[in-house]
Amino acid sequence: MTPQPKLARTRAIVLAAGLGTRMKSRLPKVLHPICGRPLIDYVLDAAELATGARPLVVWSPPVEAVRTAVAARADTARQAQPRGTGDALAAALAELQTAPGAPAGELLVLSGDVPLVEADLLEALLAAHRASSAAVSLISVITADPGRLGRIVRDEDDEIERIVEAKDATEDELEIEEINSGLYAFDAAWVAARIADLRPSPVTGEIYITDFVALARADGRSIGSIQVGDDGTLDGINDRAQLAEATFAMQARINERHLLAGVTMLDPTTAHVDASVVLAADVTLEPNVILRGSTRIAEGTLIGSGSQVFDTTIGRDCRILASVLESSEVEDAVQIGPFAHLRPGSSIGTGAKLGNYAEVKNSRLEAGVQQHHMSYIGDAQVGARTNIGAGTITANYDGKRKKRTTIGPDAFIGVDTMLIAPVELGAGARTGAGAVVNRDVPAGKLAVGVPARLRDPRPEPDEPPDQRSPA
What we know:
Elements: H1 6-9, E1 10-15, E2 33-34, E3 37-38, H2 39-51, E4 56-59, H3 65-70, E5 75-78, H4 85-97, E6 106-111, H5 119-132, E7 136-142, E8 151-154, E9 160-164, H6 171-174, E10 178-187, H7 188-194, H8 212-218, E11 223-229, H9 240-260, E12 264-265, E13 271-273, E14 278-279, E15 284-285, E16 289-292, E17 296-297, E18 302-303, E19 308-310, E20 313-314, E21 319-320, E22 324-326, E23 329-330, E24 335-336, E25 341-342, E26 347-348, E27 353-354, E28 358-361, E29 364-365, E30 370-371, E31 375-378, E32 380-382, E33 387-388, E34 393-395, E35 405-407, E36 412-413, E37 418-420, E38 423-425, E39 430-431, E40 436-437, E41 446-448, E42 453-455
Parallel strand pairs: 1-4, 1-6, 4-5, 7-11, 12-15, 13-16, 14-17, 15-18, 16-19, 17-20, 18-21, 19-22, 20-23, 21-24, 22-25, 23-26, 24-27, 25-28, 26-29, 27-30, 28-31, 29-32, 30-33, 32-35, 33-36, 34-37, 35-38, 36-39, 37-40, 39-41
Antiparallel strand pairs: 2-3, 6-10, 7-10, 8-9, 41-42
Helix pairs in contact: 2-5
């Protein structure tokens, strides 16, 4: 008989119906972010890699946002009331019975709040489960601090006899240092036949998935297990302190991956890089850098201390110094900062330079533009090689609508110029210091005064008289 393919044989179930009250948050626990992603996303990654199939997530009405958040990458099952892990598994089984296609031969059950779990460990659990033909297999952890987690109770032959939840444990059982990780593999047909035999705890009223261990023993079935050390990888997230610890560990993983791929981090402990960020080789990150979202940075670029970059693409050989870039595009060999700000919708051309306290919003600066300090360019198109003097402002809002400014190539905007949109300056146009420009300036003309008047620019000292503009 030909074995079933991995996709048809194994199905991962992720339990995410709990309220997470210790988080003290309106946001469901498993949706709290770690390095830019909801923590459940990391669990789904591992589950999908280990099984090759689309996971199924169990949710409950108080955390319905979970269903919406995972819908694109997981099937879902509704647990009407969060009455424990066994009841959650029953909801998942009911959903699987109506799913199209061949039924799963085995189930991999995970908690949605264990973001550091890795696919390799889950694959090892499944391998041990198959090798032992067990009804139930699990991963246990040896720890000096068992806390509130379920204890593994073994018999005189060192076989797993049962799992007792901390709330139900005796004083002697609470001294046990082998705990349940909450990761299981099940014979799918057996667990479906036995799910109705789970009974509520007399102490808490919850239905525990751990009771399957005793049921398997009663049926004469073996219990498979893998024992691991307490390295934090299988810790669940129950409060903000544990969330911070998991975030630190995940960030270390992400940074190590970038370092091994050729990125330089002068202090990796202060480099905050989202899981979704893409960095090329020879990118350098100075201390205290934050990179978020869909940010992509090409080779040879330096991101200086104190910079924050959100959803922005940055080209090759750029220097970004102590600046904030949001939802923008930066081409090659650009210099920005220190203390500059690209607001959403900005596009900076090759070789441009933005100095101290330069701000750009929803504007395109073509190649070679120089925008000097204490200036604001908003809703504008600035031509190549134009010089933006210090203190220049595009007055783009009239109290009702945003209006655009267009500046041609090779223009020279004098210090402290105010451009009242809508206004257009032609190629090579110039403005004098302090000019308030409220009408178009033709190519090659000079605008001076308040409000600005048009005149021909004075010739440069080395400009031959016959090349001067006519009066």
